[in-house]
Design brief:
Alpha-Beta Plaits; single chain; 10 helices; about 325 residues; binds adenosine-5'-diphosphate; four-stranded antiparallel sheet; about 30% strand; Rossmann fold; alpha/beta; six-stranded mixed sheet
């Protein structure tokens, strides 16, 4: 069996949405280079509008790229579009299930669309794995939101693809279901399936993903093993408790600030560029009196902010 080093490889991937009567041309992907190792759980993080969905839709063959190359499981999406598409299952952000099918029918129809022969179908296995066995014959419209989402995962897996892509899989999903979904995703990964997911839940990415790419405004700003990303960053937090509690963190020139419980706030600084002294000077200059301070190592959220904060809008091209 052919096993590529990378499940997905994108080189200089560009996507420009053409201008419409009401919107200007939009360069959603500005030359993305990403190599997603086979067998990884790869997190794609970025703020809204960063280009995550555009990237995923390009992989899935739903959006036509402007330029660049993409290989899925070693198959170029221009040269071997069908083979490339057969190698991925995509769980879209929106729930789009036909309300008049039962979950069993939905999976059978999907398998038929992928040309999976009857004897190779895994309908029962998938229904069981996603906790839908007892709903196999209910109409999809009768399922809860969480069940519908699990059905979407099952649909993405009917053709047994080596790569599963999940676009914001746990947005609006309750804690219990999230755990169930992750257990299944982890199980798939143990069986060798490469997982790519986009998420806003930084904690989730930190916990689950072995590699993380951060994209912002159509560009990759970081791509590393999660542990390296966390270690490499030279950011620190200073937690400031002001004499008078503040409702919102003050804006400080050159620093990221976020409010904390009890009227305190965190100031993130880079150790190579400034110091606790400078942070405290900036706090005092803003007119606040300091009651107490503490320092803290960064988590992914701080790194994310530090990396996505830099480029001002004016630098956009
Ligand atoms: P994300 O998934 O990270 O939130 P998207 O890929 O959805 O980001 O969007 C990236 C940029 O492309 C945004 O500025 C968005 O408005 C724009 N965009 C997305 N889809 C379209 C489209 N179909 N037509 C025009 N612009 C789009």
């Amino acid at each position: 069996m052919f096993l590529p080093e990378y499940a997905i490889e994108a080189k200089d991937l560009v996507k420009t949405y053409p201008a419409t009567k009401t919107t200007p041309e939009m360069r959603a992907l500005k030359g993305i280079d990403l190599a997603i190792p086979r067998g990884s759980i790869f997190g794609l993080l970025g703020p809204n509008g960063a280009g995550k969905s555009t990237f995923i839709n390009t992989l899935a063959g739903l959006t036509k790229k402007t330029s660049g190359t993409v290989r899925i499981w070693g198959r170029d999406i221009d040269e071997r579009p069908r083979d490339a598409r057969a190698a991925i299952g995509v769980v879209p952000q929106e729930i789009a299930a036909d309300p008049f099918f039962t979950p069993r029918e939905a999976l059978e129809v999907q398998a038929g669309m992928y040309g999976v022969p009857r004897q190779e179908r895994r309908t029962d296995e998938l229904l069981a794995a996603l906790g839908l066995a007892d709903k196999a014959k209910a109409y999809v419209r009768q399922l809860s939101g969480g069940m519908k989402r699990r059905l979407m995962v099952a649909k993405a897996m009917v053709h047994n693809p080596p790569v599963l892509i999940l676009d914001e899989p746990t947005a609006g999903v309750d804690v219990e279901l999230r755990r169930q979904l992750w257990n299944y995703v982890l199980e798939l990964n143990r069986r060798g399936v490469t997982i790519v997911l986009t998420t806003h839940y930084l904690e989730e990415a930190q916990e689950l993903c072995d590699q993380i790419a951060i994209i912002n405004r159509g560009q990759v700003v970081a791509c590393e093993p999660t542990t390296t990303l966390l270690r490499r960053m030279d950011t620190r937090n200073v937690i400031v408790t002001p004499a008078e509690p503040v409702a919102a963190a003050p804006q400080l020139e050159g620093f990221e600030t976020r409010s904390r419980a009890g009227g305190a706030f965190a100031v993130t600084y880079r150790t190579g560029e400034s110091s606790v002294e400078q942070v405290l000077a900036a706090v005092r200059a803003s007119g606040l009196h300091i009651k107490d301070i503490a320092t803290e190592d960064p988590d992914l959220e701080d790194i994310f902010l530090a990396l996505t904060y830099a480029a001002p809008e004016a630098a956009e091209v």
